[in-house]
Specification:
Blueprint: E1 7-10, H1 22-34, E2 38-42, H2 61-72, E3 73-74, E4 78-84, E5 90-96, E6 105-106, E7 112-115, E8 118-121, H3 124-137, E9 143-147, H4 153-165, H5 171-174, H6 178-184, E10 188-189, E11 192-194, H7 195-201, H8 204-208, E12 216-221, E13 227-233, H9 240-250, E14 257-262, E15 265-270, H10 274-286, E16 296-300, E17 304-310, H11 331-339, H12 348-359, E18 366-369, E19 373-379, H13 385-398, H14 402-414, E20 416-418, H15 419-426, H16 434-439, E21 448-451, E22 458-461, H17 463-468, H18 482-496, H19 501-508, H20 514-526, E23 531-533, E24 540-542
Helix pairs in contact: 1-2, 12-14, 18-20
């Protein structure tokens, strides 16, 4: 069992002897209590799955652990037991219950939250969000007064048919009785439907009384921002799956696109790809807080698509890390979507959206978080049509992985990228070898080449592969050699000097990395080819009199 948002592991010496760190354990308990609860397996090392086979636990240790935690935490409830693993070794299972209506903290007033498999402190603005998010954590499984006998039989039959046909659902689940299926997916508790059950298999009038059932507004605008079409799904007759199908099938604009040349053939590129539209809708339905009032809006402009969802990102997720951070706000609803093939595993949907857009030569989607909403913007334009055939050729030859397609597409759009620029575009975490991880096999396959070292390393498409793929991209100065760049800067300063580095950058070519220009000017000053006067923003470069 690996560590995740619900499971943590610690060695036995974390609670025994001089190495015992009770404050650290208390902090971890606060993390779990403020997230969704979880378990700490004490006596199992981080990378191990079982305790040492001859490990034995003192019978008094569970009571000591519970007492120490109670002394150091507020609003944290625990259950501590000694367990025996399959190899005969003993360990302690410390279960931390979810603090559904209160905020847990340490006794010295510190607040923490579980993000992935790590514990992170809550900032002041995140603390207020946690207060508002708490009710959403238990919304799915909250029991209603609607008996299971009053569910919508057609929707339930369709649901059973969908899970029977799904390759992601085990035979054991498919063979369950109706009552067992409702229980398995948390659609019912004690003979009554839950909020999740009403949302999925309830009747229209019951769904309308939910707090708050999703409604969708589609608005289309012309080039003058005048509304030219409006479609609403707000009568609560559709469950989430039916809503997605209705949005995709009832809006004719999704079928529009352009034909582009792809070798001897023509390829149809839709203005907005089905995978992208469906992923945006899935995100809007699965990750929204259902205790927050607000509708889902789909705005279609001549040049872009915007999908606006009520509520903010879950704590720990930002517009910058949305590609890499996976936190479920509605885990049971997400599981239903996954089982019915409506979404991929957690987090891979955003990867898929990036992959599809870059494969079709389009810019990356732009996430934005407002005061009480989240917006994703997808542009219609194709930045470089020639990239489409380039990536298709590479994928046909080498069966590229999603991250490799994303990396190849980004580098092809920019012609060349430094390691720093690549990490900034994808908002990669500052960890060792993260860029190498994303590039995958691209250098080994001869698709990507590089020059330079460390963070100044520059990546570009292998010219030999560009020739083979008959790539018709435009040439620019991004990969200009150093000696040529020196001459270019020299001639520019000779004509316009004294001049600032910003003006030099503008005149010789914005596509050249500003850091590369700075390094080159620094080398030219070392060789006395250039001199400067002034400081910082007022610094001007000029050619010494003897050079003129």
């Amino acid at each position: 069992m690996n560590e995740n948002i619900y499971i943590d592991k610690k060695k036995l010496d974390a609670v025994t002897g001089r190495s015992a760190n009770w404050n650290e354990l208390a902090k971890d308990c606060v993390c779990f209590a403020n997230t969704r609860g979880g378990k700490i397996l004490i006596g199992i090392a981080d990378k191990e799955h079982l305790p040492p086979p001859h490990q034995r636990i003192d019978e008094q240790l569970p009571y000591i652990i519970q007492k120490k935690i109670a002394e150091r935490t507020i609003n944290v409830a625990t259950k501590v037991e000694i367990k025996t693993a399959s190899n005969g070794g003993q360990f302690i299972e410390l279960e931390i219950l979810f603090s559904a209506s209160t905020i847990a903290s340490t006794t010295d007033g510190r607040y923490y939250y579980r993000s992935g498999d790590t514990c992170v402190p809550l900032l002041p603005d995140e603390l207020s969000r946690l207060f508002s998010d708490k009710p959403a954590f238990v919304w799915e499984t909250r029991k209603t007064k609607i008996p299971v006998t009053d569910l919508d039989p057609i929707k339930f039959d369709n649901f059973k048919k969908d899970i029977t046909q799904s390759s992601r659902v085990s035979v054991h689940v498919k063979n369950k009785s109706d009552e067992e299926i409702l229980d398995h997916y948390f659609f019912a508790v004690d003979g009554c439907l839950t909020n999740l059950g009403v949302l999925w298999v309830g009747k229209r009038n019951h769904r309308a009384n939910l707090l708050y059932a999703p409604t969708i507004h589609f608005l289309k605008f012309d080039e003058y921002d005048q509304k030219v079409n409006k479609i609403l799904w707000e009568d609560h007759s559709l469950n989430p799956k039916e809503l997605i199908e209705a949005v995709w099938t009832q809006i004719p604009d999704w079928k529009e696109g352009v034909d582009i040349a792809d070798g001897m053939f023509r390829k149809f590129i839709p203005n907005y790809e089905e995978e992208v539209v469906r992923e945006l809708l899935v995100n809007a339905l699965v990750h929204r807080p259902y205790t927050t009032r607000g509708d889902i809006f789909i705005y279609l402009f001549p040049d872009r698509l915007e999908v606006i969802n009520p509520g903010l990102f879950p704590i720990g997720v930002t517009p910058q890390n949305v590609l890499h951070k996976n936190i479920r706000r509605n885990p049971y609803l997400a599981q239903v979507f996954y089982d019915l093939n409506l979404m991929d595993k957690e987090g891979s949907g955003i990867d898929k959206m990036y992959e599809v857009l870059l494969t079709n030569g389009k810019p990356l989607p732009v996430p934005y978080q407002g005061d009480d909403y989240v917006k994703f913007t997808v542009e219609r334009k194709i930045v470089k049509p020639e990239i489409i055939s380039l990536i298709n050729r590479a994928d046909e030859m080498f069966q590229l992985k999603p991250k490799e397609i994303i990396s190849l597409g980004i580098i092809a759009q920019y012609n060349a990228l430094s390691a720093i620029e690549f990490a900034e575009i994808l908002n990669l975490p500052d960890t060792p070898n993260v860029v190498t991880h994303w590039l995958g096999r691209l250098p080994e396959l001869g698709l990507i080449q590089s020059k330079g070292k460390t963070k100044g390393k520059e990546y570009f498409i292998n010219p030999d592969f560009l020739k083979k793929a008959n790539f018709k991209g435009k040439t620019n100065l991004k990969r200009i050699e150093n000696h040529r760049l020196e001459e270019l800067i020299f001639q520019d300063v000779k004509i316009y000097g004294p001049t600032s580095i910003g003006d030099i950058h503008t005149r010789i070519g914005k596509e050249i990395n500003i850091h590369k220009i700075r390094r080159t000017i620094h080398q030219m000053m070392k060789k006395k080819v250039l001199v400067c006067k002034g400081e910082k923003r007022h610094r001007k470069y000029f050619i010494p009199i003897e050079q003129n």
